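Batch manifest, entry 17 of 40.
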Amino acid sequence: TSIADVAAKLIELTGINVDMQVDDSRIRKNEQLRVFGCNNKLVSTTGWSPKYSIENSLEDIFQFWYKETNK
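Output type: structure tokens
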């Protein structure tokens, strides 16, 4: 899941149209543009697995703050 994926999901949840742009001046010369992680070792060692998807988590967070700010 990338930051763009998270932003797209939040845009979908809120219904707000956002024009996302990259400011090249803020990217460091030696910036690692792609970072990948793998949870295989954690899963095989502990048996852990996520109970909630990132999409469900974002929706829950959005709903919580929507209710909090519209009381």
